[in-house]
Design a protein that fits this description.
Keywords: Histidine metabolism, Hydrolase, Manganese, Metal-binding
Cofactor: Mn(2+)
Helix content: 25-40%
Mean pLDDT: 96
Radius of gyration: 18 Å
Catalytic activity: N-formimidoyl-L-glutamate + H2O = formamide + L-glutamate
Low-confidence stretches: none
InterPro entries: HutG, Ureohydrolase, Ureohydrolase_dom_sf
Distance between the termini: 37 Å
Largest sheet: 10 strands, mixed
Structural class: alpha/beta
CATH topology: Arginase, Chain A
CATH architecture: 3-Layer(aba) Sandwich
Number of helices: 11
Order of helices and strands: EHEEHHEHEHEHEHEHHEHEH
Number of strands: 10
Number of domains: 1
Shape: globular
CATH superfamily: Ureohydrolase domain
Pathway: Amino-acid degradation; L-histidine degradation into L-glutamate; L-glutamate from N-formimidoyl-L-glutamate (hydrolase route): step 1/1
Amino acid sequence: MLIQTNEKFWSGRTDSEMNRAAFRMHQVIQLSAPQERVNNKTCTLIGFSSEEGVRRNNGRLGAAEGPNALRSELAKLPWRMPAECQLMDVGTIVCEGNQLEQAQAELGAAVRDSLEKNACPVILGGGHETAYGHYLGVREFIGPDAKLGVVNIDAHFDLRSYDEQPSSGTMFKQMLDTDENVEYLALGIQEFGNTDILFDEADAQGVSYVTEQEITSGIMDEILQKISFFIEKQDYVLLTLCSDVLNSAYAPGVSAPSPFGLDPLIVRTFIQTIASHKKTLSFDISEINPALDHQNQTVKLGAYLTNEAIVALLRGRIT
């Protein structure tokens, strides 16, 4: 079910009502979906209020409150984009009861609609089951034959079996099992956050991945080259961020905190690099859990990283 966003979540300091150079995000947001084709400098925000996938995966609940919490922090940020750039809030897909698959299909339809209107969708999750609805919309838009690179910044592979039911731990296996034109790159994999069977599944599926330890002890230029090589093989790219990839000192408010997680500056670099690429269509952020947060620090960090994605997506489209 799609619910229109309450304008109360888009409020903040106003330094000027006339001078655009002083505007913050709450002053430029449009609370509507595009009704017709827009210029290619538009981002649409789509909320996905779901934690059913997290519940099925035996995770800590609270991520369903993520979308509006992120909006409230995004609202305060300066809007430092050219006048032709637009930001539109489509509203929030709410997962009713345990109807996860229906909600994911609805999210897919909203993502597809934004892409058809020439906008860049930015999805505010929600548990990481958000990524599958995101994927459904992108795949429907690009058609079955295009090569789609799915880049996941995450501590976990999320390649679990879905024989019983899909969850927030199964999305990428669902994609790989049913779509021969998907390739999967995971960045930030925790060596002791995934069992041997998940590493075996990743190898069997031909997944490309870089572990957290390789990232923190490696040379960033080499890792960025690996990302670039992966992207060049694709026709289109989808970017998804699971917030549990972040070090828990910076991001305690997630379903599965990572004491050895990545520094936010590394994650920012990945987002800037991937989202600014001309092949990247869209971005989602998942697993922000306000109920488990400390002084709103995870929500605030999530908003800053989302803003980086918005800026990179829009600047990547400006010639």
